[in-house]
Amino acid sequence: MKIIKNKRWDMDLEEFLKKPLFAHLATAVGDYPRDSPVWFHWEEEKLWIIGTATDTFPKRIKNNPKCAIGIIDFNVETGLVLHVGFRGVATVEPFNTAITNRLLSKYLGPDEKNWDPRFRNLDNSNVLICFVPKTVVVRDQSYKKF
Length: 146
Prior knowledge:
By secondary structure, the chain is of the alpha+beta class. It is 17% helix and 45% strand. InterPro entries: Split_barrel_FMN-bd.
């Protein structure tokens, strides 16, 4: 995995990816790109994303595994703008409860009984997307507030 970063970036990528931020998964259908906001889990230099029975991005990935993923940490009050952009390939993998629980705990907390019912007891009707980045672009585009 090749990492390209600007001079201002001083955060550890692993620490950045532990934050409960939204990612945008870009896939393609024919000549048209599609964008899906997703939660993610970073483990062993792979991004993991849950796909449900109603999601269309797993089908798009099966047809064309080339993807891009963008993640931004933005704070309007402080002017913080951190951007991480991934380019790589994804595969649709069988559901894995352990990875899913690590992913959901990042966003919903460690105690499943406190989760929204939609996220409890997920099963094999779901899939996991395993995204393997080829390149990662990391940029600190923060600005000063006046």
